[in-house]
Structures are given as structure tokens and as C-alpha cells.
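Whiteboard transcription, Tuesday session. T.W. wrote the C-alpha cells on the left side:
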């Protein structure tokens, strides 16, 4: 029962988060955007006290069920391990805790977090690794499949599907990182099970300090144990030593595989660390009663579902559009542009885990991973494929780490994240001698006015003049500028956002 409940809840969590990353319609964000907010590191960075307390209590009561039910990267490793088990059963073995690797990695992770070394921090964060894999490896396949269905539907005059473009530049380095992350995790999980979780993952190490003292644990009934070693050979965490009838609770993820594999009923998920003879004699002489097992299963599932309900928030669906336009080259900005709600570049860098959820969810493809080595994988804004529309704030709705805080649409419309800068040598009226004014016509705040290039000659070509006090840095002018390959007007970011 324990294993079945774990698999059911893990499946719901895994599919929900994966579909949130893959969805390009905004539909899933309305239903499951609360799931990423249950991730431990993201809750800590967002100072989500309710979730933090709930996860700590869950670990103290049930052990490291977070790693096998809530963490999508842990669930993904279980899938790889299950596939490997199909090839060879009973293939695991007991191994001692690798303290020489486990704790230095945790210290390195904390140093990277405090020092703001984003690239190292994001490489080690488990949810970020999962986000990279889904966004850059699975999403292209998902979009391609959708486009095939759209072509078929179009042939039959159906609008059930529509073509989607996800051709965003600067993905090559991140894709390579995602491929290597996936390959290493898959290989480790296929052969060794939960090696990554118990040696490298900093969140797993943090939770291991709490799980040692959990109320419910996997326990041996020594009298029933026949030393067949099936529990050890089926433990993907390599934490069960059948010879000494002991379990390393700091590494146990409470998957329930050992209980199912034991043919003698010698293992149970119960309160006491080891069943004594007197307690066995006073209770049923055989297996744990179905009633007590059912009660534990109900308690486990109720606690997990309660945690999810506490973290769930109502989401509004707000979709934007995307006009097709010829590819541009991004300008070199002195200050990166960060999304409305991030408040400042410093706040964004300190809280962002590089999970790429905002990149996946951005309907206008304004957000993309930075190619800068110091900010590698950190999302940044660029306007070659679209602009930050005033009616969309989806990134602030789905961000689980507090890097992009929820922001109302009316506040977003008056928040300055940057300002437009005009480049005279690229402007079409001056280079081609034709009228333009695209930037002024499409500026949502009226911050751009067309004025004569020669103040003393009203007949001279009209060029844009930017009112920086009204400009919010949405990028509509840069996106819609017809100049190629570089726009004649682009957005410079503000280190600290301010509201008009």
C-alpha cells in the first residue's frame, strides 16, 4: 500500500510539473502552477514559510518522502531505475555513506548561493536540472509533435491544433548542458539507483539531517528475517544492510520497494526503530494488520495532499500573441533587462535558480537563457521574437523562487524595467530615406514621439525621440523596428526597477 500511494502521488506531481514546462497555451499554469512552489529550495528562496514548515514536518514524521514524491528529478531517476530493473532484477547492493563527497558538495552549494555564483549554484540545484532537461530536450519534441498534428488538422480544415514556433537563439550551450545532465543522471540511476540523490544533491543532504529522526521508518523484524538479501538488492538508495538488519535513514527515500520485495514480512514502515520481542508478542504474531497499514497509508496521503492544498494559489490565465517577423540580432546591453516583478537585477540573481520555467511559459518568447558565462542559464529579456506585452504577467505567476514576484497588470504597466535608446546610424528614415515611425505608433505608453531630424528643417526626415520618464522598457519599439540586423532602437535595462 505504501508503494502504491507513493507511485500514485509521484505520478501526479511528475506529470503536472512536466506538463507545466511543456505547455505553450498557458492552460496548465491555471491548474498546476502551485506544484513548483512545493520545491524545497525554491520555497526557501521565496521565503514561503507555509511550504517550508510543511516540508520539514513531513520529513520529521515520514522521512525523505519529499525525494520520492515531490521532487521531479528524484521521480525521473526512479523511472530510469525502473527501466534498468527491467533489464536485471535484484541488482543493487549496500554501500556506506560517501561523506567525503556528500558534505563538501553541500558546503560548495551554500558558498555558491551566498556568493552569488549563479552558474555553479544552478548546476547543483535539482529542480533546475529537471527544468533544463524538460525545456531543452523534451519541449522541442513536444512542439514538433504539435506542429505535425497542426499540419494534419489544417489538411482537414480543422483548428484543433495550431503551429507553434520555439526558435529562440542562445540555446545551444544550455542544450549541451541539459544533454550532459540528462546523460549523467540517467546512467547513474540506470545502474546504481539514487546515487545522485545521496551523494551530490544538496537538498537531499539537507533533508537527510532531518530524516534521521523521523517518526516513521523502515524497520526490521529480526525474528522473521531470513537474511535472503532481497531488501538490499532492491534498495535503490543502497541504504539497507541485511547482514546487520540496519537502515541508513539519512539516505532512505521511503519508496517502499524493500517492503514489497520481502517475502517473509520482516520489514515494516512503523514507529519503532526495531521491533522488540515483547512488542511482537503483545501484538499480532504475523504481519502488520491491514487496518494499521491502511491508517498509515491514509495518513501519508492526507499529509501530502494537505501540503499541496496549502501551497495552491489561484492563477489567472493571460495569453499574449506573437507576430512573425524576420530574425534580428540581439544588441549588446550594458545592463541586462530583468522581468517586471523581479524588482532589481540583484534580487533576480540572488533568487533565481535557473529552472527555466519562466522561459518555457513566456508566450512572447521574450525570456531566454543568458549566454554570458557569469550568468549562464539565468533568464534574461530580449526582443528579437516579441515584446513584453502589458496584458501578460505569466512569468510572475509561475516563478517558485521569488525571483519574479507576483505583480498586478496595472502595476506592471507602470513599472520601468529599462528605457529605450535610439541609434541614429541604424534608423531607416536616415539610412533609406523612407518614412517609418513604427516605434512611436506601437509604444504602449506613448513614450516615443517622431520629431524632425533637423530641428531647423520641418521637411527633414522624422526620427524618434524617447521620453525616458514614460518609457517602461517593454521592448515593443525594438521588436517592431524594421532595421536589420540591428534595431535602430533598443532597450537598456535598469539595475533597480521603479514605478512611474
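and on the right, the sequence the group agreed on:
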Amino acid at each position: 500500500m505504501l508503494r502504491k500511494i507513493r507511485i500514485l502521488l509521484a505520478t501526479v506531481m511528475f506529470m503536472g510539473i512536466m506538463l507545466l514546462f511543456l505547455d505553450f497555451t498557458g492552460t496548465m499554469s491555471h491548474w498546476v502552477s502551485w506544484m513548483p512552489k512545493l520545491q524545497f529550495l525554491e520555497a526557501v528562496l521565496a521565503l514561503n514559510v507555509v511550504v517550508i514548515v510543511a516540508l520539514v514536518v513531513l520529513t520529521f514524521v515520514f522521512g525523505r518522502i519529499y525525494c520520492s514524491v515531490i521532487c521531479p528529478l528524484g521521480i525521473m531517476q526512479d523511472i530510469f531505475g525502473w527501466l534498468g530493473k527491467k533489464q536485471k532484477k535484484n541488482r543493487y547492493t549496500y554501500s556506506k555513506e560517501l561523506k567525503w563527497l556528500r558534505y563538501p558538495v553541500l558546503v560548495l552549494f551554500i558558498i555558491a548561493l551566498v556568493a552569488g555564483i549563479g552558474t555553479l549554484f544552478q548546476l547543483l540545484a535539482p529542480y533546475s536540472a529537471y527544468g533544463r532537461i524538460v525545456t531543452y530536450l523534451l519541449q522541442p519534441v513536444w512542439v514538433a509533435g504539435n506542429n505535425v498534428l497542426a499540419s494534419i488538422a489544417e489538411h482537414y480544415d480543422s483548428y484543433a491544433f495550431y503551429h507553434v514556433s520555439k526558435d529562440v537563439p542562445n540555446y545551444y550551450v544550455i542544450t549541451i548542458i541539459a544533454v550532459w545532465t540528462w546523460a549523467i543522471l540517467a546512467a547513474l540511476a540506470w545502474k546504481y539507483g539514487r546515487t545522485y540523490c545521496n551523494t551530490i544533491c544538496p537538498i537531499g543532504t539537507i533533508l537527510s539531517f532531518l530524516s534521521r529522526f523521523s517518526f516513521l521508518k523502515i524497520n526490521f523484524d529480526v525474528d522473521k528475517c531470513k537474511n535472503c538479501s532481497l531488501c538490499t538488492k532492491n534498495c535503490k538508495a543502497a541504504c539497507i544492510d541485511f547482514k546487520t538488519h540496519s537502515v541508513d535513514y539519512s539516505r532512505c527515500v521511503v519508496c517502499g520497494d524493500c517492503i514489497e520485495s520481502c517475502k517473509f514480512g520482516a520489514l515494516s514502515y512503523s514507529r519503532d526503530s526495531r521491533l522488540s520481542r515483547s512488542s511482537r508478542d503483545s501484538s499480532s504474531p504475523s504481519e502488520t494488520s491491514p487496518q494499521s497499514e491502511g491508517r498509515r497509508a491514509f495518513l501519508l496521503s492526507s499529509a501530502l495532499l494537505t501540503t499541496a492544498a496549502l501551497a495552491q494559489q489561484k492563477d489567472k490565465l493571460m495569453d499574449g500573441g506573437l507576430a512573425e517577423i524576420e530574425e534580428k540580432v540581439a544588441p549588446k546591453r550594458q545592463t541586462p533587462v530583468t522581468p517586471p516583478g523581479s524588482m532589481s537585477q540583484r534580487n533576480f540573481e540572488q533568487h533565481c535558480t535557473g529552472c527555466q520555467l519562466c522561459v518555457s511559459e513566456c508566450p512572447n518568447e521574450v525570456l531566454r537563457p543568458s549566454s554570458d558565462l557569469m550568468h549562464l542559464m539565468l533568464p534574461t529579456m530580449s526582443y528579437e521574437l516579441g515584446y513584453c506585452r502589458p496584458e501578460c504577467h505569466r512569468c510572475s505567476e509561475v516563478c517558485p523562487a521569488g525571483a519574479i514576484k507576483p505583480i498586478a497588470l496595472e502595476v506592471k504597466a507602470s513599472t520601468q524595467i529599462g528605457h529605450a535608446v535610439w541609434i541614429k546610424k541604424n534608423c531607416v528614415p536616415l539610412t533609406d530615406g523612407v518614412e517609418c515611425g513604427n516605434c512611436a505608433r506601437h509604444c504602449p505608453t506613448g513614450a516615443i514621439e517622431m520629431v524632425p531630424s533637423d530641428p531647423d528643417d520641418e521637411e527633414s526626415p522624422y526620427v524618434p525621440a524617447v521620453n525616458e520618464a514614460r518609457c517602461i522598457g517593454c521592448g515593443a519599439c525594438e521588436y517592431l523596428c524594421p532595421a536589420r540586423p540591428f534595431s535602430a532602437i533598443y532597450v537598456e535595462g535598469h539595475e533597480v526597477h521603479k514605478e512611474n
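Someone added at the bottom: The chain has a mean pLDDT of 87.
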